[in-house]
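Predicting structure from sequence has reshaped protein science. With that in mind, we have picked out one protein's residues alongside their backbone shape tokens:
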Amino acid sequence: MAYLKENPENKRKMGAQAEKLAEEYLTAAGMKIVARNFRNRQGEIDIIGYHEGYLVFVEVKYRASLKKGNPEEAVGTAKQRVICKVADYYRCTHGVPLSAPVRYDVVAVLGGEVRWLQNAFPHVYR
């Protein structure tokens, strides 16, 4: 298992390392990644892929330790709302039918431990 080196001066670099670790984990588990860091003016989705018939929108959260809580706890209602808005935009611009099964997952990276929470939250409507 890979461990990320803490670098408090560059949170963006740490986030990128956590996303790479998450992507490797998801790919090994059978997810086909189709987009990374998909963004529009409303926000960003870290990873988009297909897994077991679902179009999956993945938020990656990293914590070096439990000092600030579990990583998945950082995906609150406001963040979920943003992810869902960006997911709706992605679906619209990529011709994904409304009937297509969609899932919202969270990958929590704590130190070097990766936890994949499938179906972490439902679609949050405006």
